[in-house]
Amino acid sequence: MGIATNRTLALDRRANLRIAVNTLLGQSKRRIMKNAIITFAVMVFMAGTLLTGCRTTSEQKADNAEEDVRDAKEELREARAEYRAEWRAFRIESEQKIEANEKKIEAFKERMENAGPERKAKYGRRVADLEQKNRDLRRNLAEYRDEGRSRWEQFKSNFKRDMDGIGETMNDLFKSND
Question: I need a labelling partner for 158 at 20 to 30 A (CA). Which of 7, 107, 133, 146 fits?
Answer without folding.
Answer: 107
